[in-house]
Specification:
Layout (H helix, E strand, L loop, with lengths): L17 H9 L2 H11 L5 H8 L3 H13 L3 E7 L4 E6 L1 H4 L2 H14 L37 E2 L7 H7 L4 E2 L5
Antiparallel strand pairs: 1-2, 3-4
Length: 173
């Protein structure tokens, strides 16, 4: 039949690439949608279930995984019976700019009739256009201007692959 429901995909956790490790951690679509809703104020299990239309067993599994990955935590709001709500950790809040950039990309490339939702300034109501800037200089980071080089956590093998050169995003391989 060819269908294997319990087959797990390869883990990228040990790859010497921060992008591969991040995708391994948050690359599942339900994970990103749960985090999106948490950033938009969802707190209770029923909030997520209602907004996402996700089966309760899948939601339970995903919320537990997000807590194991320290992206969400629980806060008890009622003792008897015990009830909890979910809150973003600092690590989970750190994904806010990633989700904004994904929303902007989806609006541009996946919404031929215009985006179903627009990103706006919460105070002025004006449209916002997320971009990536260097927090040290305030410089807008553009394709062809950002490179990679081995960092403090690089293995000797990775350092040898670079041999003093940098790889530029948008450059020739």
């Amino acid at each position: 039949m060819g269908f294997a429901p319990n087959v797990r995909r390869k883990s990228f956790h040990d790859f010497e690439c921060c992008i591969a490790r991040a995708v391994d951690e948050i690359g599942d679509p339900w994970t990103l949608l749960i985090l999106r809703n948490a950033l938009l104020g969802a707190r209770k299990f029923s909030d997520f279930e209602r907004a996402l239309g996700i089966p309760s067993s899948t939601l339970t599994r995903r919320l537990n995984e997000l807590m194991e990955k320290d992206l969400l935590t629980t806060v008890e709001y009622e003792e008897h019976p015990p009830r909890v709500e979910y809150a973003l950790t600092e690590r989970g809040q750190g994904l806010f700019p990633v989700l904004l950039i994904l929303a902007d990309w989806g609006a541009k490339w996946l919404s031929p009739d215009g985006p179903p939702l627009e990103l706006i300034d919460a105070c002025s109501g004006e449209k916002v256009k997320p971009r990536v800037i260097d927090a040290n200089t305030g410089h807008l980071l553009e394709l062809g201007e950002v490179a990679l080089r081995p960092g403090a956590g690089a293995s000797a093998e990775l350092r040898a692959l670079f041999c003093g050169r940098e790889l530029v995003f948008g450059g020739a391989a």
